[in-house]
Amino acid sequence: MEAARGGGEGEGEGAELRLLGTWSSPWVIRVKVALGLKGLSYEYVEEVLASKSDLLLKSNPVHKKVPVLIHGGRAVCESVVILQYVDEVWAGASGTPILPSDPYDRATARFWATYVNDTFFPSWRALFRSTTDEQRTEAFKNVVPVVETLERALRECSKGKAFFGGDAVGLVDVALGSHLVWISVVDEVVGVRLLDKARFPALAAWAERFLAVDAVKEVMPDVRKVMEQYKGFLAKWIASAGPS
């Protein structure tokens, strides 16, 4: 359990903030980035998912998953829901808005954040879970068209600016950017380059800009630790598959 640094702006909106999470989870990283963008102080509680705490089970009895944001004793679950909650509650804070003010732009941001969750992640997860060359070739072939769609979405949503959110990081940036460390680790192990500069120049440049944002740099997990964890996952999956 640890206290995360932040500006503390907006604490008058309620009582203390606690975030239940696991250190390498992209879904938890999303919330950490959002809280950092808003300059909020919070207590971070690391969960061990193999032996979930009573607090987690009580706070998220439906899915029993992280992240969970507890604000004034009340729990908010699901990462994208939490991002929108943080943006609405601390709308007047001095930090960066996560959603645009225009209703159409807000709807567009929600659409693409849902696309990241429901279309990109399942496609990329097949690559993440692959253990043979055949599986990896097929998974990579399937995820590339999804990334092509995101490349077009970035060009349209950014209107030539730095991020999906325009001049500043927004909902879609956080939703997709939270996966970047994991994407780079899987790339290295599998021997591919998903956000290839030649194929996806806009997304490749966007990824570099996103990772350079202070609120992102402060919470992204160490690549070496993620690599170690991923290799552990692979060893278990290969062992459970048994002889081919």
UniProtKB/TrEMBL annotation:
User: Where is it localised?
Assistant: Cytoplasm, Cytosol
Q: Which UniProt keywords apply?
A: Cytoplasm, Transferase
PROSITE patterns from the xrefs?
GST_CTER, GST_NTER
Entry's EC annotation? 2.5.1.18
Give the GST N-terminal domain ranges.
15-94
Where does the secretion signal sit in this chain? none
Q: Is Transferase one of the keywords UniProt gives this record?
A: yes
Q: What is this protein called?
A: Glutathione S-transferase
Protein source organism? Eragrostis curvula
